[in-house]
Amino acid sequence: MSKKYHITTFGCQMNEHDSEKLAGMLENMGYIEGLTPEDSDVIILNTCSVRENADMRFFGNLGHLKHIKKAKPDVTISVCGCMMQQEHIGETIQKKYPFVDIVFGTHNIHEFPKLLIDSLSNRNICINVWNEEGEIVENLPVKRKFETKAFINIMYGCNNFCTYCIVPYTRGRERSRKAEDILCEIKELVKMGTKEVMLLGQNVNSYGKTLEEKIDFADLLYRINEVEGLERIRFMTSHPKDLSDKLVQVFKECQKVCNHIHLPVQSGSTRILKQMNRQYTKEQYLLLVEKLRNASPDIAISTDIIVGFPGETEEDFLETLDLVKQVRYDSAFTFIYSPRKGTPAESYVDNIDAETKHKWFDALVKELNDISREKNLLYKDKIVEVLIEGSSKTDDLKLSGRTTTNKLVNFNGEGKEGDIVRVEITKAKTFSLEGQMLY
Ligand code: SAH
Ligand code: SF4
Ligand code: F3S
User: Fold this and answer.
1) Are residue 110 and residue 170 in the same domain, yes or no?
2) Which of 34, 295, 393, 396 is placed for a possible disulfide with 39 were both Cys, Cβ 3.0 to 4.6 Å?
3) Strand (E) positions, 121-250?
4) Does ligand 3 come within 6 angstroms of the Cβ of 171?
């Protein structure tokens, strides 16, 4: 009988894609996916350190694995991902969770098969975390979660050092994959049935800077747009400071590039943006939004916002609220600031009480939700193209998919994953649309 593996992923899409690579390597070694950790022989926790609650969820999960290891000593427990790149975490694991077999980081996931074999033969805790990024490793096997839409790394790492953010420390310096390697991967995927690609990077707008070939992100999109059989191109994340006019034009000219951009603003106060080291002002951000809407009037815009950054005042918060009202985002992820060990902001004086932070957070979420609902209402009675992603989680609606503007649509009709169908929208909710397929 085949041995089984189970991977729990705590982080972003980059982290999820790393898990897809780990699954690909394990399947090449003959393992099959187990339904639960209890049911598996190799258990992996792929961690995230971006906010404190991700940390806490990881330690909670790890505590639970102790019982599994006790009942089944042969099981191999591995922990990896961003948290492992932080020195103090490795020390805590050694001290408090000695039942862990393998610890590795974000720069050496390709080494996992070797670490697993070593661990199976000597059963001592193996800690192998690289402090620095190595060469980009190409052609790792990937077991993809979705058949029709695929994650593709176009670059790794980050050079921006936003003062609140841990990612530059856990993912290393920015480096881009060669365009020909990216195109080759996409063409192979399209042959296997992929319809949509999601290009991943912490700041895709600075793609190409580390390459010999003279190429930027817009050039890469023009090239991917030519791939026959590919239907849709998405990407994240776009840093506002590097969004060029050339990239704005791509939305007009590349028919496969989806009509949506995720453009994290973080704050609407220029003073706070400066302290966050974001390198743009509120006015510059609003100008970008105007340019995008001039190039593509119905473009959907989503964002990330942090409230309660150290030193933020009521006035700063009102600037954020004002920006939100001006931009009218389609959707947003909102976070309460969480100090991260080793980042510059960790030492900034945080004098805002928890009650105020929560009050601001709630007011912001309410405003964002009201706007999302109003924007979704504009879709009512309209006919949209939906790429089917699978079955719907909503009772009495069969299928689910997304519009080019990234709206989730649950609908009735006949079709299979990967088909692009026309749907008439009958109902608009805050976070999704409902409709009926047209034949
Ligand atoms: N490279 C991307 C994603 C970074 S992490 C980008 O630049 O947008 C995703 C989001 O988590 C960030 O956009 C930010 O809003 C949030 N985040 C990062 N560090 C945080 C912290 N210390 N506290 C609260 N939110 C944080
Ligand atoms: Fe973090 Fe800023 Fe880099 Fe995004 S751009 S990963 S927020 S440092
Ligand atoms: Fe992603 Fe979390 Fe690492 S957001 S890059 S998994 S810190």
Assistant:
1) no
2) 34
3) 126-128, 149-153, 155-156, 175-176, 196-200, 232-236
4) yes
Q: Quick check: CB of 158 below 6 Å from ligand 3?
A: no
- What is the C-alpha separation between 245 and 318, in angstroms, rounded? 29
Instruction: Check residue 126 and give its pLDDT.
Output: 85
Range of the domain at 343: 149-377
CB-ligand 1 contact for 340 (6 Å cutoff): yes
My answer on whether 292 and 390 are in the same domain is no
Kindly state whether residues 352 and 404 are assigned to the same domain: no
Atom nearest to 159 CA in ligand 2:
3
| Ligand 1 centroid to residue 147 C-alpha, Å | 28
Atom of ligand 1 nearest to the CA of 345: 22
Q: What is the pLDDT of residue 432?
A: 97
In a domain, 251, yes or no: yes
Q: Are both 251 and 296 inside the same structural domain?
A: yes
Q: Give the relative orientation of helices 217-225 and 245-253 as an angle to the nearest 10 degrees.
A: 10
Residues 416 and 292 in one domain: no
257-281 confidence digits (pLDDT tens): 999 999 999 999 999 999 999 999 9
Residues 320 and 354 in one domain: yes
CA distance 249 to 295: 6
State phi, psi for 292 to the nearest 5 degrees.
-60, -40
Q: Residue 433's domain is classified under what CATH number?
A: 2.40.50.140
**Is the domain of 282 the same as that of 212?**
yes
Residue nearest to atom 4 of ligand 3 (CA): 12
Whether the CB of 6 sits within 6 Å of ligand 3 = no
pLDDT in tens, 172-206: 999 999 999 999 999 999 999 999 999 999 999 99
> Could you tell me the CATH number of the domain that includes residue 35?
3.40.50.12160
Sorting pLDDT into bands at 50, 70 and 90, what band is 132? confident
Note whether 266 and 362 are same-domain residues. yes
pLDDT of residue 354: 95
**Prediction pTM value:** 0.95
Which residues line ligand 2 at a C-beta cut-off of 6 Å? 158, 160-162, 165, 167-168, 202-203, 239
Question: Mutation test of ligand 2: which of 160, 343, 346 has the most ligand atoms closer than 8 Å to its C-beta?
Answer: 160
Using the predicted structure, report yes or no on whether residue 147 has a pLDDT greater than 90: no
CA distance 115 to 77: 12
Residue 143 maps to a domain: no
User: Helices (DSSP H) in 296-432: which residue ranges?
Assistant: 314-327, 354-377
| Average pLDDT, integer, range 35-50 | 96
